[in-house]
## 1
Amino acid sequence: MRDPRSSWASPWLSGSIPVLVLAALPALLFVGVLLYFTLWAVVFSFTDLELFGRKATDWSFVGIENYERLFTRRGFLESLWTTLTFTFFSAIVGQSVLGFLLASTLRRYRGSMRGTIEVCLMLGWLLPDIVAAFLWSATTSKTGLVNQVILGPLGVEPVNFLNDYALQVVILANIWKGTAWSYLLYSAALDNVPGEVVEAAKVDGANGWQRTRRVILPIIKPHIGTNMLFITIWTFTYFPLIYAMTGGGPGSQTETLPIFLYQQSFSVGKLGYGSAISVAMLAIVGVMSIFYLRLLKEPK
């Protein structure tokens, strides 16, 4: 009797199914753990669970009360706006645009200048977040490099940048920290652009901007979409650098959603409310991911 597996798999695959299943177990286990904790976050978001006190053990279901708090009390919407601002200027405008400009410019050069710039980019990317936060805090303090070397000789009074321009400094720090990823991805994408296509556009009279907009960008569109997907999600959920530099302050100037979630869950102790915040963040990230994935689809 004919083996039914031969109708849908090659003989090699049919004989290796146990091995393939075994090899897939770590991935299945990882996905299972993620789903488990996600499910618990969803369940806790409908409760009044707290980190300490009576509600830590004697909690109860409160329906959608925590989700109503997201939109009826101050905190969540302000942090959402701060997060969107931070993500837009830090990732979309900063890292992506700067990474592409550096990749398109430096690919024309070889030698020490390109190597020096690449080392500086990689240094920012590889430095631990705590170290990067310390460097930027020290650089932008009243006695830091900016005031001592730039503003001081010009006769300008010292400025405490982390107090007066906290969000702008954090945005610049994250651009410096994460641009290397976009640079590497765009460099690889530009290296795969057919040179004859660009030369043909040049022969047809297209200038540099026209060649970039009408030839290069459409070719590397999938890479742009992939890069935007990753850096948007990473930046939207980014925590260590901001918390180490400002702790969300001064006031709530740099209180992004991850910091707001941390403070509500562990400083205030409202784990149920914190779970609702995490579920809301998951929904927002999911919507953004679907948007980028639709952009990545090739038109039929």
## 2
Amino acid sequence: MLEFLGEAFALAFAPEVIIFACVGILLGITVGAIPGLSGDMAIAVLLPFVFVLEPASALGLLVGVYKGSMFGGSISAITFGVPGTAGAAATVIDGYQAKLAGKPNKALHTALYSSCIGDTTSDLILIFLALPLALVALKFGPVEFFALYVISLTLVAALTMGQVARGVAAAALGVMLAMIGRDPMTGAQRYTFGMPELSGGIGLIPLLVGIFAISEILVQIARMLQRRRFQQRVTTPAQDAPAYDPSKDKMDWPTFRSTFGATMLGTGMGTFIGALPGAGASLAAFMSYGLAQRLSRKPKEFGKGSLEGVAAAEAGNSATSGATFIPLFAFGIPGSATAALFGAALIMMSITPGPTMMRDNMAIIYALFFILIYANLFNLVASKVLLPVYSRLAMIQPRYVLPIVLGLAILGTFASSNSINAVWMLLAAGVLGVALRWFGVPLGPLVLGFIVGPGLEESLRQALMLGRNDWTHLVKSPLALGIYFGTFALLLLFWLLTRKRNVLTKEEVK
């Protein structure tokens, strides 16, 4: 064990890995601070670089982007009232009001500190839970893994906020796309429509980059053409905003202490929700915000610039970052779209996510754990120093950024396979992503369905072979039945919590 830790320490703290992690953090904060761009999109665009970088360097870059974007979304949320990422939507409620009340510096620093606390705590829980859960998962058979796959897709769809039917449809579509190509057992072609280019299936990189990056670029271009410049609406100062006094807007210890309780509430809620497949940072942020308001001594200040509201929302958002990897590392099931992207990166490194990953790749996985921890420190330092600069990034016009992102996406996809067919798949996936966005279908469940699909099919067919085609064999395992029952209980719990959150939201509107 000590040998692996020493090797992992050497990998994680190699100069080039630290440099890539720092570059990733700066890039992530920048992307998160610009409305319309997201950490998922940046990670998707950077996936082809996995082929040309050493595994530790590639993980450092991707982790840095992820960490930076988790906080970066709150910068534009507080400064301009426009969430840079979906997870920062709850931060807008009190963050922008705090800025209008003359407390932008306090709000930004509260978001930064609570984000780093939530993120670090979540990472530590991942480190201490991943290995024990992986050891338990090693005892799973096809029936138990089929139950996990089914439940993961169910949770992904059911926890898609307000879009259960569309979440189910997106997950099913992802599984169907994963089945295109050759049958894994017979080798026969299926769903190729006579096109030899599809005989090898749909590439992981073209699909992910197309769904996340190309579709977002096309949507942003359409918005520019239609002149929907929402920034003009939110960057105009309020008429009744008080004169700004810097001397009253300094972050101090009493302010931090007053928000610490809300930060820990958000951290706990975000870690719990982040560990559930498909729940997502946005749900965690709103749940944390609602819980903090109910337990606060000053609940009436929420929605009017409460720093407790900023702390709870941002801690809940960021606390999902480590927890979302727990099901990926332990069972091979991505906990979110971001975890699916990291799972794809690991697969490209010839590392198969799941219970055997910890055993067969201990050095690189523990190196990843080291990177997760020190990336939070780099994120804290870099964000604190560069806050004045990043708070103005939301003013960058998308027309300057989008062409660069589009070029990188196409170039990286072509370089990953040296095939023009991959570029056509990329563009087709982008068009599909635009269509799904148009009809309000969430993209996360589709990606998770595509990643989980092969394992779901394999475990189902193996379980049926063991049960001699008896479908009741799928529910004869006590462990599988326990998984089904536990998931039903979770769905019932989140249904009740969502009802309370909706009532809370309606009261805030009134």
## 3
Amino acid sequence: MSTIDAIGGVATAASPHGKRSGIRGFVRWLAFCMERRRTRLALLELTDDQLADIGISRCDAYREGLRPFYD
């Protein structure tokens, strides 16, 4: 599990409202993926000193930042 994944999660409880809950779930998942992508891009913009402050290397930042939004 990556650090980004540990920050937040998406509730996956089923709803009795049928298809609408599926659409809402998809929208929630998509919003979560977009937020994850935004934070990964922000990670790529940090300086080496800032990365050292949070305890990761530039290589780790690139590895995390270049992952696809859905991963």
